[in-house]
Amino acid sequence: MENAQNTQNLRYLKLLSEKFPTRSAVATEMINLTAIMSLPKGTEHFVSDLHGASSAFIHMIRNASGVIRRKVDDIYGYRLTEDEKRALCALIYYPEERLEMEIHNPQHVLTDREREDWFRIRLHQIVDVMRAVTVKYTRSKVRKLLPKAYAYVIEELLHESSIEHDRSDYFRAIIDGIIQTGRAEELLIAIAGVIHSLTIDTFHIVGDIFDRGPGAQDIMEELCNHRDYDIQWGNHDIEWMGAAAGNRALIATVLRVSIRYANIETLEEGYGINLLPLASFAIATYGKDPCTLWQTSDFENNARLTRSAELMAKMHKAIAIIQFKLEGQTIMRHPEWEMNDRLLLDKIDFANGTIRVGETEYPLTDTFLPTVDPKDPYRLSVEEEELMQQLVRSFRRSEHLQKHLRMFYSHGSLYLVRNGFLLYHAAIPMSEEGEFLPMNICGKVVKGKALMDAIDDAVRRAYYGQGKEKEDALDLMLYLWEGARSPLFHKDKMSTFERYFINDKAVQAEKNGAYYTLANRKDICEKILTEFGLDATTGRIVNGHIPVRTLKGESPMRAEGKRYVIDGGFSKPYQEKTGISGYTLIYNSHGIQLVQHEMFESREQAVLSGSDIHSRTLLQDFTNHRLRVRETDKGQELMQQVRDLQELLEAYQTGVIKEAE
């Protein structure tokens, strides 16, 4: 065994020697890695439950949850007025739009001298801010982020000296040259991009990018521009991921939810999903039915929907009935899910217009169900089957949607352990006694961390797998959306059917799983942290999923500081419950900050008047020393690399491996 390990180790060192062929190259890399480990740790931002609120999210990225404004305050203090600071920040957040307003404004044409002075001042200011956000990064890391066309110029400006007179003249000459050659606008935009890239080192999105708001696709595109981000899948993400992968029940669910919340822009304009077949089917099937109970939420405030409110209601009803049928088919294929209580179409008494739930008979709020066959209620009609085939093709052939689905796989997971934090969207399924609940995942009964790992694997098979394994995993996506023991849901039921068809609050109620109460206890959080291999004393859990009702005095900090719930209502439909506009948890070299955001007006106002998201810090948990890279998970990886290089150096010195000549 020892000889095999030595052979394998030697093979690895030989591969490593191809990259570092001499002792000098090894020593240089060891010095570089050791220096990197001594730098302050990068800034991590944690957010959750964006729900399509793209304008607020993109602004939060651009202003780094208020960090850039604080940098401007630190640099300029009282040397700039409040209006001047707001204008500078707006230029950094939205350089193209602000340039249009200040330089290309036909209502206020600048003279050549005024334009030159404006650029000269703004270039000096924005370089000051860039210098402030690059101080804790190596020159190599900064260099990699610089646009090639301006890399040399930006590097020179970054290392300006106000002490050396000749050097100062040199920099003024650079800026004057940039202005004279007409490249000042492009340079400003490039520097703003560098500031955005470096202010946030890593972005953690703890679930639910999709549903409710109209801009999920814009959020995904913005993430494409960020170099280091990860996503912990939320229940609404899994819903869309399942739909994009071809789960028919979830395709119907995505359509129903989008129509219900007046969010068809994401489908049609964002992803090119053709809704005409659904509209045609709805008119043909429910043409004489006013579908009053199926009116789209908030249609009166949406001019586009007001013009077609009745059509939208018919589409809403049509896809909901299809969803209930497809859900039923899937549930019957998987008795191990124990979801027979969700089979309700076969409990309808069509003659009397009632439905039996448990031991109680309820009158139906809508009895016009022409496509439901009482003898075989879960079978799609011929027309419904044709419609679903068209919709599946539309989802599967949407290049934009498939691109974003692949991002969820390449940058996403069910949970993440990073730098002492355990991130997952909703829950770890638990019993009332605080024990991890077992669940059958594609034939394997698992619980706790093993459950989360098994689900993560299954979600990947749903897209990348083959044959029956892929089919079962794709079915599982539906359970993850609405199953009682799903870590993304963990309620006794999803009472969608009851909310549509039964006018009784008691039968509509959904009971939360035990986790949501138990996880407010410190000992339970410590148990979960230990299960995932973290130090129960220093580790912390970050969740989203359940909106924090600040209006009712709820706090995002739970379990004596062991758990943070950071769903603060980025999306407007939730803000009536939360009273705020989201949270950002910030973890930098100084420690932890929890920032609470107020309402965001609009991107237009941010450009025009420099209005910002007003934020206040709820928590500052600073360490007594500045955290360094060596104290992070990345630092542990770098230390291992240094140890490997040390072994290679010794192999060179002893002649076990020969240096390149």
A few lines on this structure:
The chain is of the alpha/beta class and 661 residues long. A seven-stranded mixed β-sheet has the order 7-3-2-1-15-16-17.
Secondary-structure content class: alpha/beta
Radius of gyration: 28 Å
What is the average of the pLDDT values?
A: 87
Shape: globular
Low-confidence spans: pLDDT under 50, at least 5 residues? none
Number of DSSP-assigned strands:
17
Strand order of the largest sheet: 7-3-2-1-15-16-17
Q: How many separate helices? A: 29
Structural notes for this entry:
The protein is α/β, with parallel strands linked by helices and 661 residues long. 52% of the residues lie in helices and 10% in strands. It has a seven-stranded mixed β-sheet. A five-stranded mixed β-sheet has the order 8-9-12-14-13, covered by helices on one side. It starts with a helix and ends in a 7-residue tail after the last helix.
Describe the secondary-structure layout.
Elements: H1 2-19, H2 23-37, E1 44-47, H3 54-63, H4 67-76, H5 82-93, H6 95-102, H7 112-134, H8 139-145, H9 151-158, H10 165-180, H11 184-199, E2 202-205, H12 216-224, E3 229-232, H13 235-245, H14 248-260, H15 264-271, H16 276-286, H17 303-306, H18 309-333, E4 348-349, E5 354-357, E6 360-363, H19 382-396, H20 399-411, E7 412-413, E8 415-418, E9 421-424, E10 439-441, E11 444-446, H21 448-464, H22 467-482, H23 496-501, H24 505-508, H25 515-518, H26 522-531, E12 540-543, E13 557-558, E14 563-565, H27 572-578, E15 583-588, E16 591-597, H28 603-609, E17 615-622, H29 633-654
Parallel strand pairs: 1-2, 2-3, 3-7, 9-12, 12-14
Antiparallel strand pairs: 1-15, 4-5, 5-6, 8-9, 10-11, 13-14, 15-16, 16-17
Helix pairs in contact: 1-29, 2-29, 4-5, 4-7, 5-6, 5-28, 7-10, 7-11, 13-14, 13-20, 13-22, 14-18, 16-18, 21-22
